[in-house]
Every structure is written in structure tokens, then in C-alpha cells.
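Hey, I was hoping to borrow your eyes for a little while. I've been staring at a protein lately and its backbone has me curious. You're getting the sequence in one-letter code plus the fold written as C-alpha cells. Would you mind checking whether the C-alpha cells look sensible for this chain? Here's the protein in full, and shout if anything looks odd to you:
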Amino acid sequence: ADLLILVGAAALLAGGALWLVRVPSLPVKQVVFIEPLAHTRRGEIEQVLPSALRGNFFSLDLESVRLALEQLPWARKVRVRRAANLVLFLVDASWSMAVAERMAATKGAILSLLTDAYQRRDRVGLIVFQKDRATLVLPPTNSIMLAQRALGDIPVGGKTPLSAGLQMSYDVLRREMLLHPDVMPLLIVLTDGAGNVAISHLQPPQEEAHQIADQIAAEKVHCVVINMEHAAFDQGLAAALAEHLKSPCYSIADLKAENLYLTVRKEMSQINAPNPMDGLRK
């Protein structure tokens, strides 16, 4: 049977995913078998792969991995490639005392991620929502130059159309996942969770936002909510949104680019294998 392997960016063998011991720099994170292993046994794969999986994300010899797997019985044709991450930021740009701080941290984190991933196929995008609309400020890209240009002037102020932001995120992620089936998406939502503008006006804004969040969660997208509400005034709305997204909810006391960047990098290391792996997990 044909085997398609996606080599992402870390480390254990659970179900059909092989995780390896981390190496000091940019470790190979995950080996994912997209096609079901009809005749090949997991133990056989464990025997042949370790010798071929040497080096980090960049230095790994994909041809050696392919040849090692094609030695297995029933492995007729093997294709190997590196998987990519997609980090999509969704940021509340409506008026608040902290909007300038929020945008500065987001811009810095995006540029840091792009600098960090300049040799990989990782891409970063940005959606902001304010007034009565969401805006795709930065379509998914791996270009630092395009990012710097797009992030130069971002609209802020007005009401909080959380539903519009979530809907645009859903649309962008769905499109990217269809165009790039091997992509590992991560949605980072910076908000206090308090939407006050609906898209359809058929539902209250908060209920509509939660419904769209449920749709995003159904796509198995790894999400993180960064709660932007001050602790003294927190009503739990960001946590409620995170519950619908089936995601963690963090509060970053000192919201700076470096802290946001480190939070994103931590979550990138925990992204699950792509959906086709579901049938292989035990």
C-alpha cells in the first residue's frame, strides 16, 4: 500500500504517530502516516525508521527515510515531505485602554515567528475585528517583508464584532486546510470574549460567537484564547469562549511580544497530528 509521511517539526510512538528524542535545535517533532497501515505492522516501522531519522528538521535526509520505508513488506511506494505550521492570529482591535499594547505584542510575535521559520514552510496570518467587521490584515504568509508592510497600519477602535472575526477565521482555516491538507493549524485568539455585534442579527452576539466557535472546534483546529480582560473585571467570557473552542485560556499579565511569542511556540509544540491520523490512534 502507498504510504505518505509528513515530517513536522518533535518527539514517541503512540498509535500511528512516531515521536523521537528531541535534538538541540529544531527537532523533528512528528512522523505522520496519512494512509492507513493495511499490512505493515507498527513494530516493523519502529525497526527501520530510527536509523534513517537522524538530524533535525532541516538536516534530515528525506530520501533515506523513503528508502528505509520502502524496504518494508507491502510498502510499494513511499512519499516523504516536511509538514508546515499555520499560525493564525485573531485579535480584538476594538477600543480599549490596552488596544495599543495588544497590537504591538501581536505584531512583534508575528515577526518573531516569521524570522524563526524563515527556512521552513511555516506561515503566519492576522485577522483583526473592530467596528462592524473583521479584516484579513495579513493573509497567511512566510514573507517577513509582506508582514512588515501589512502590519504597518492596522485599523482600531469601535465595537467588538467577535462573531465576524471567528467566522473569518473559520473560513480562512477551512480554505487553507483544503489547499494544504498537511498543514497543522493553530488559532490564537486575543480577546476578552465580549462580543457586542452580531453578523445575522438572528441571535444575540455572544450566542452567535459561541456557535461559530463550536464549528471551529469541530474542524479539530488547535486553538488558544489569550484573555485580555483585566483580572479585576473578568466575567469569565474569554474562558467561556475557550470552552466552545475546546482550547486552553491563558492570561498574560505582562503582554509583550516576547511573552506572546513564547506562548505560541509552546502551543505549536503541542499541535496534534492532522485529522487523517484519527483512524490510526488507539
